[in-house]
Design brief:
The complex is a heterodimer of chains A (269) and B (402). Chain A has eleven helices and no strands. With 269 residues, chain A is mostly helical. Chain A folds into two domains: 171 residues, Orthogonal Bundle (MetI-like fold); 39 residues. In chain A, helix 1 crosses helix 11, helix 3 packs parallel to helix 6 and helix 7 crosses helix 8. The longest helix of chain A is centred in the C-terminal third of the chain and has 37 residues. The radius of gyration of chain A is 23 Å and the shape is globular. Chain B has two domains: 165 residues, D-Maltodextrin-Binding Protein, domain 2; 134 residues, D-Maltodextrin-Binding Protein, domain 2, CATH 3.40.190. Chain B is of the alpha/beta class. Chain B is globular. The chains are: A mainly alpha (269), B alpha/beta (402). Chains A and B meet through helix 5 and helix 10 of A and strand 1, strand 2, helix 7 and helix 8 of B.
Amino acid sequence: MKTLSRFYTLLIFLFLYAPIAVLIVFSFNDSATMSRSVWSGFTVKWYARLFQDGMLLQALRNTLVIAVAAAAVSTVLGTAAALGINGMSRWMRRVVMNVTNLPMVNPDIVTGVSLMLLFVAATGLLGGVSLGMASLILSHITFCLPYVILSVMPKLRQMDPNLSEAAQDLGCTPARAFFRVVLPEIMPGVVTGLIMAFTLSIDDFVVSYFTSGTTQTLPIFIYSMTRKRVSPEINALSALLFAIILALLVVINVRTARQGRRAEARKEA
Amino acid sequence: MRRIFAALAAALLLSAAVPVSAAEELSSAAPAKTQTGVTINVYNWGEYISAGGDGSLDVNAEFTKETGIRVNYTTFEDNESMYSKIAGGGASYDVIFPSDYMVSKMIRENLLQKLDFQNIPNFRYIGKDYRNPVYDPENAYSVPYSWGLVGIFYNKKYVKEKVDSWKILWNEKYAGKILMFDNPRDSFGIAQKILGYSYNSTKIEEWNAAAQLLEKQKPLVQAYVMDQIFDKMSSGEAWLAPYYAGDAATLVQDNPDIGFAIPTKEGTNFFVDAMCVPAGAKHKREAEAYINFLCRPDIAAANMETVGYSTPEPEAKKLLPEEMRENEIFYPPESIIKKSEIYTSLPEDVGLQVDALWAQVKMGGAGQTGTLVAVLAGFLFLYLAIVVRKKLKRRREVSPPR
């Protein structure tokens, strides 16, 4: 029975990671035909070429700028919103939560098209500026916000509401109480929201496709290769991104584990 | 006296307004001044320019170096998505690269601007055969960038017979090993040529007949794909696939088993990707400077060497490496070109009909909507049932025990 369950776990992991493994393996494939299915020798030339491809790097830079901006802004806004919602009456809170969750269940394509229509109308009033970086960042903030609220809310609910009051009794201004007492308490939720917003923004295609104007993000750039063929440079880039995100996750996990241990030690002391 | 003066003035005006579409005599005129420091937005096909990889020329960087005009270069994957972006009004581009039929569609919808050929003196390098094409008869809106033909890729190991007709894609011997285009114009085009119709037919019954032929072929088709053709062909997963000559050539050169043939019996599609300036362009003059730059033979040759398509400029062709210049895949004999046909845009109603027919061919026709609605209704019902059950359960738990 035990071997069976182990085998099953193995199968699940294989299923999850086989595509990524294939992608990484073929980023080292030395093939003039840029084939993605026939192995013909080891090379790192796609990695070298990746850093010479100006267009690809430009697309990557756009994507990163948008992701960082969208994640930062939506985290701040989302945390503030969660605080406000938490202070509402039960009934009101339920209504507002449902309203904020709606964009999440809304299909991306509807969000994309409606944002595009809005932006086109707005820029028309402003005298026909082209959509671009600004509209992309705005739309990414829009679809990231609900996720941040959703990940901060539970932490706020868990927190003892008297903590903040106690801090103020002991002489903190409300702002100071927030930064010294509330924020550290809900930090795990905020960080989760930030990471979620960042990853959502990086791999968004549908909404960006409609609101990108003359700016090109990485997913759109990759998609535009599909009439010819997707170059193995993309494999190399994906492998690098995967490695970076893996490293980030490891760092975060190690940190939270260490913090947990420290907290326990404090409790025992 | 006044009348004479008026007549003189009119004559002067007329002489100034000589049609500018013929560009030969314009080569001497100096192009208008461009502004340095501005950025033009260029929208081209993906991987369709020499971008500096593998020691090739970085065309956009070179343009900026020579003119001081910066280039924001972005890419699209097909004509339709490019069209929706321009027509949707969300983006202001200065240079776009639509294909033949899309050029005529955009001209009809007033989405393109007339070009000022005085600013594009290098138009003189464009070969005579590529001027005044059917999609832009007065050659006022577009400058050809590249051209090519559609042909059939085949694996010589498995396909021993001579490939000279589109009918081979209907041969049951190769069932499950045939690929087809994943776009309506190219797929319908193959059926139309077998039936002997024009690509640009406006008769619905001809399109219906073509759709029927495609439906007959469907059981033999492994998949409707675009760029996966390269992988599927090189791995031997598929044996026969129609595709664009420019893309085919690289695979043929790399894999000796794969051959490329143009179906000479029925004729094929001759396509042109052209450079145009959309109606809302902010920097028309700089856009024309960019088009002019891409028409310079050395630049055109550098682009076509990377891209693999064929150039409309005889001068640029001379600069290409010999194995490209002399290759019949890139530059087929005159007789084949004579027998080929260009797509032009279809009238609105025919276009809609074609889209519907294509959906029918790929999805297997109507009747599917019924199942779709049933499935959706089922899901909705399930969801409601779960919600109601949870509500009931909670009520039972919350109500105080007696």
